[in-house]
Amino acid sequence: MGKVILVTGPARSGKSEWAEILAMQSEKQVVYIATATQNSADAEWNQRIAQHQKRRLEDWVTLEVPIELSATLADAQPNICLLVDSLGTWVANLLSQEDAIWENTVAELLETVDLVAADMIFVAEETGWGVVPAYPVGRNFRDRLGSLIRQLATVCEAVYLVTGGHVLNLSVLGSPLPPKS
Question: Whole-model pTM above 0.85?
Answer without folding.
Answer: yes
